[in-house]
Specification:
Length: 103
């Protein structure tokens, strides 16, 4: 029994040492910049070229002339127990509201 407790204590001490090492690494990493975080300095990303540049979308390019498509009556299936409208897909077997079988 003493051997089991010595292993447990050893693992706890090893875990604490590893956690302290990780903490020391992140503290040392952020010494020069008090705003530094675990994910790094955002200004460093700009220098490395890691930022994503998105193309500007003009409002005139968007097609708002067509109204959004409304789902038809066949797209939903009413639950026989509570009446909630569920999607009429073959993989859905249970009601999303009462979780009973759709039959």
């Amino acid at each position: 029994m003493v051997e089991v407790w010595s292993w447990i204590i050893g693992y706890v001490i090893l875990f604490a040492v590893v956690q302290l090492a990780i903490y020391a690494y992140y503290v040392r990493r952020g010494e020069g910049n008090p705003q530094a975080s675990a994910i790094g300095d955002p200004e460093e990303y700009a220098r490395a070229g890691d930022r994503v540049h998105r193309n500007h979308v003009d409002e005139d390019d968007l097609d708002d002339a067509l109204p959004p498509a409304r789902p038809t009556e066949e797209a939903f299936r009413a639950c026989p127990h509570c009446g909630t409208a569920n999607e009429n897909v073959g993989t859905i077997k249970y009601c999303r509201n009462c979780t009973r079988s759709l039959g």
